[in-house]
Amino acid sequence: MQGRLVTLEWPGDDDWAAIASWLRPGSPAAVLSGDWELLGAAEVEQANRSGRVHHLVIRTKDGERIGTVSYQRSGRIGGFTVGGAIGSPELWRRGYGAEAVVLLVDYLFHQLDAHRVQVTTAGYNKGVIRLMTKTPFVVEGILRDHCYLDGRFHDAIVWGLLRDEHYASLKPSEDNRVLAVGLADFLSDDDKTQARAVLAEHLATGRRTALDAYLDEAPGPARPAAPSAAGTAGTAEPDLLGTEPAAPLATEAPAPAPARGAA
To answer: Which of 34, 77, 132, 222 has its CA 20 to 30 A from that of 247?
Structure first.
């Protein structure tokens, strides 16, 4: 996933230790996020390989490894929680972390069919809160005394973004300058249209498909019975849902009986 400032890559074998160092207790990124675990490189790798969490590495245009973003499924089907960290404070407030989250959020909606994405920020993190207020994320709640820093507890803010809100946010405006960018489609609409045309042409040639076995066994259309020599007046129509003939219509008059003594 590539943006204007950074790219996101799946971690390699030499990335796990770096991710663990950015998230370790007491690291600058962990302090500001208010959420960390005491994990080593092996535990971070195992969490990713098990699918409990998915980290991606943030790299600058010149290939420097500077941080990570992550996502994990939460709540009902289509729900995700995301997080991130830029390792060195010297690289904060340069737009790297913001764009990395933009790329990740768009990936979740555009490729993983997300319905809802959630972010939790520490109540004392002025920079991230200011950033979030410039996005279409909606404040959904306050987690009281969720974070602990400098000898006391602090609240955390829960932000949420729904699918339709995300796609509406891709239109740039003065009030929305952060998430007004999305990943390009992996394939163009023209390529997708041509793929359908190739398949349609193949099917039009009458070549055998997996459906042929079912079509071979399907009964042919029922043919209507030939009319009798006596004509069809007053005969009952066949019952389309069963085998019993339908009763004659009440408006049909019975055929007259022959006169007595007729030759």
So the answer is: 222
| Tally of CA atoms within 13 A in the half-sphere of 254 that contains its CB | 4
- For 176-197, the pLDDT digits (tens) are 445 545 556 777 888 888 888 8
Q: What is the pLDDT of residues 204-261, one digit of tens each?
A: 887 788 888 887 777 766 655 555 555 444 444 444 444 444 444 444 444 554 444 4
Residue 176 DSSP one-character state: B
Q: How far is CA 118 from CA 5, 162, 237, in A?
A: 23, 9, 63
Q: What is the pTM of this model?
A: 0.69
The residues, any chain, with a CB within 8 Å of residue 55's CB and separated by 6 or more, are: 11, 19, 44, 48, 68, 69, 70
Q: Return d(Cα 23, Cα 17) in angstroms, integer.
A: 10
- Which tokens sit at 23? 């998230």
CA-CA distance, 7 to 45, in Å (whole number)?
Answer: 20
Measure the N-to-C terminal CA separation of the chain; round to a whole number of Å.
99
At 45 the three-state DSSP class reads helix
* Closest by CA position to 101, among listed 137, 53, 147: 137
- Crossing angle of helices 16-23/41-49, nearest 10°? 110
- Can you say how many angstroms the Cα of residue 252 is from the centroid of all Cα atoms in its chain? 61
Sign of the alpha-carbon torsion through 158, 163, 165, 167: positive
Element (H, E) at 151: none
Cβ partners under 8 Å of residue 178, min gap 6:
98, 102, 131, 134, 135
Average pLDDT, the chain: 80
How far is it, in rounded angstroms, from Cα 189 to Cα 172? 22
CA atoms within 13 A on the CB side of 2: 6
